[in-house]
Amino acid sequence: MILALLLAAAEPMSALDTERAFIADAQKLGQWTAFRKYAADDAVIFVPQQVNAQEFLKGRADPPVAVYWWPGKSFVSCDGSYAVNTGPWVRQYGKAVGYFTTVWQRQPDGSWKWIYDGGDGLDTPRAEGGDIKAEIAACPKVAPPPTGLDEIPSGAKYVRGSSNDESLRWEWEVLPDGSRTFTVSIWNGSRHEVVIEDKVAAP
After folding, report:
1. Helix, coil or strand: residue 96
2. Domain locations in the chain as residue ranges
3. Total-model pTM
4. Average pLDDT, integer, range 149-165
């Protein structure tokens, strides 16, 4: 019994566990303090153009009441190197609602840091959440090559990322007017299936 408890305590946190710890720290420590704590050095956010999160958030005062969010879906690469969480957020006790999407990268020590955070407001909240389980990508026998990319509009910022084994992929494109798209696909054993497709209008 004691051995089982010790083994459970030694088990590294999942990206879902880390998301929930991030949420709790935002309420306890302050919104931007928590964002800085969990962000990788090269993490990006959008204001609306892509910027380095640590530089943008450095010294930024926490709002009196932090945004509250919770994971509604989670997707993890087969090799466990990356994960993407998405779900609803609320501000001002539900007066404003929206969704978030966060890409998490496992660190050498087994912890997680976020490298991408995006989202948008909505007219009505998403009906997601509860005791969700992560969907883990099928393991490709050989890393599937990237498929052909659409033509990138002039002046757009395009970024593509993937897990080490290519079982989880994401890409984003930001247009000069600040509108952007963000897409996640997961290897289902035979092809990459799109599981998240965020479209954010220009501010």
Report:
1. strand
2. 11-200
3. 0.89
4. 77
